[in-house]
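CORE FACILITY INTAKE
Project code: CF-77B
Contact: R.S. (postdoc)
Sample description: multi-component assembly, four entities in total
Requested service: structural model of the whole complex
Turnaround: standard
Below are the sequence entries exactly as provided by the requester. Do not edit them.
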Amino acid sequence: MNNLNILIEVNQDLYCKEPTSSELGQKILLKSIELIDEIGFEAFTFKKLGVAINSPESSIYRYFKNKHMLLVYLTSWYWSWTEYQIVLATTNVASAKKRLTKAISILTRPAMENTSVPYINEVLLSKIIISESIKSYHTKNVDEENKKGYFATYKSVVHRVSDILLEIKPHFEFPNMLISTIIEGSHHQKYFASHIPSLTDITTKKNTIEQFYTKMALNFIK
Amino acid sequence: MNNLNILIEVNQDLYCKEPTSSELGQKILLKSIELIDEIGFEAFTFKKLGVAINSPESSIYRYFKNKHMLLVYLTSWYWSWTEYQIVLATTNVASAKKRLTKAISILTRPAMENTSVPYINEVLLSKIIISESIKSYHTKNVDEENKKGYFATYKSVVHRVSDILLEIKPHFEFPNMLISTIIEGSHHQKYFASHIPSLTDITTKKNTIEQFYTKMALNFIK
DNA sequence: GCATTATTGATAGTAATACTATTACTTTTG
DNA sequence: CAAAAGTAATAGTATTACTATCAATAATGC
């Protein structure tokens, strides 16, 4: 284990017992990501996860209240990790415009191999975020959960990048709308590219999605 | 009943028995929309719907294979209805740019009172589409369901508006990406405005979302 | 007007899901 | 080495997501 896990923080209300603190907890994180990716969030159950990690489901319930909270945890972890990537890539870069394109690149590019933490497979987690993360906040309890700060890491990313935008164009009216549109939009486009391609414009050249959203942002601020 | 229901068509594979053809079927449509809006799609069950319309759940299963198919049906109906609105608003308008802004307006503006069909409450249906429709295609069976044409009406709307874009800028690289980004984006922004407002830029003036996405599209084609 | 057929109602039943509870065993750690 | 913490094993409940059967009723064809 390295020191990255102190940098990546999630709201303590998201779990019953901190999953990073024990072997079982880490196994839960590792295997749940694989299993959700494999069978989808709807079909995913703590029972099946228990079989996969050879532990009774009741043990998993000691870490997470239910599968919804596990998804919120994973999503929150992802955004905290993403913010860290953005911070790394933008500190000491003087040009705000360069910082902006760098941040957009991180938000829209395909996930890369990364072994920062042993109990999280970032590539699979990125896949889950693309196809399942909307389910973490499209629920009847959003308002309550938002109040409790469940989506704080997501908001933090949006506001951080919005602030760069405002450095470039101080009186821009829609910084948060633009950034959240880019984030959600790039997820949708990646999903569509894999499953409903006629809703996109896939080409043979790479990074179409990144190019599109970078252009969109730059068009807006010029 | 008026003749609009012949204009609004959905794929026949979406239902077991055509719900518009009988009183019970129409009650199912009407009440399911109310109930999904009220308790959310996760908590919605055919059992609860049966209680609401005073029919056994087994009768509902004769119309729809399961609640997922009901959601796909409602979503498909919504896009067919939306396409009809776009057609109405753009026929005989010579200027492609005017047709584009009109179409974007329809796609991004708040839902309006409309009593075109007695068994569908369009305002409530719009609310459901905003908060639940992603769940109709974010499943493990997307690929299969896409092949069967379950999402045809949605694609049709996107392609229709993309074509207007291409009239204005014939070699534009990303027409579908831009339009699907606007559609999904405006839904997200409406949802965020109600539930996670700090991800948006809400102001006192009206039509912020429409303005934002219109500006986005026009920025791209100039 | 009556038989056939389609449609709905009523009831029952099953496997899986989403949990909660209890007790016993095994590690840590102080 | 004892106390505490963590985990396993098992059992049990209410709800969900269906399927099946049969009776009652309404619509339609002749």
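Facility notes:
- Chain B touches chain A through 48 residues (CB under 8 Å).
- The radius of gyration of chain B is 18 Å.
Invoice: internal transfer
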